[in-house]
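Model it.
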Amino acid sequence: MFEEVTLEKFVHGGQAIGTLADGRKVFVWGGLPGEKVQIQLTKKKKSWAEGIVTEVIEPSSERVEPKDPGTYLATSPWQIVDFKAENQYKKQILEEHFAFAKVELPDFEFVAGNTDYHYRNKMEYSFWADDDGLHLALYNRGSHLKMIVEGSSIAMPAIDMAAQHILSELNAQKIEGRQLKTIILRATQEGKVAAALFTKDQDFPEIKMPKNLQGLRVYYSNPKSPASVMTKLLYEQGTAELADTILGKKFVYDVDSFFQVNVPIYEKALQKMKEFVSNNEHLVDMYAGVGTIGLSLGQPSELVEIDPATAAMARQNARDKAEVIETSTEKALEYIAEDKIIIFDPPRAGLHEKVVGRLLDVLPKKILYLSCNPATQARDLGLLHEKFKITFFEGYNFFPHTPHIESLAVLECR
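Modeled.
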């Protein structure tokens, strides 16, 4: 079913919203605010609908040609908007989230890096199989269908080159699509690449590791789970351990551990966080990952990380100068204390309610809260605002040409 609609604004999640002739709101991929478009409805509910643009009738002056024509909705759906305008839209979305949560923000800047393409140091591709063999694939936004891709313009070139070489080896050995789930690739800033291949076949054959790959892990992943879970390591070639320098410090991580995907803009956020930490202050880095925040800001006493492999990398990076607590943040509440600076960089779900309760009970002197989800950050700060004031706030475009937004809040006791 096709309809014409005028789009009003971008909303959280990246779609543009409009109103159908029958009064229902429609959330649309492939369109910009102010555009009159023809859309194909992809989902219809009683009070709302979703759709994809099939024709732009009246284009916005902010529309640009995508770098990945035909596949941009699968790789990075905001390739069609001018980069300067993208940053303005993201700042507006941030403001709307906090206004909805009734949290007053100080005047703030929205910070972007110097590079808006070829910045991602991590990509995960699925596979498509046909008469021509295996192809890389991604799920297209607005549908549950896969789309064949050659790579992505937001990925570091070394990643897509390695992905194509691995694909060639899989095709040379006549691996079938039914045997595979996904492949994850990570690259250092110097272009060294490691990969993890997830297969549904416990007897998966050993493939030749391409020369431009530093390491390859092949995992059996439980076919009953749609996710690429690491059920069993079948074999490893080379080394999947990588290293990057952040604010002058070397950090080791591997293809499976959490590490920020856009290092240059991440450093901008860390430099700003460092301004709010004095020498010899007691830092506790919750959701620490491999320790990049706490160890970059000073010398934290504790790094809290739940994943065993990532915690091992944090110990390596800390070099015995900080204690690594291998547990979840909500089970490490005793480390949140009045005389400490608490660092948060939580997953998209935000802070656990037990963590919020502990913060309100003990009132640590300062909180540095970096978020990858402004909706949950706004919710959390709404719960904390009676006892903490936001003394600094800044937004970041960690993921250009995608809808994702990062933001930093510095909180101090009232």
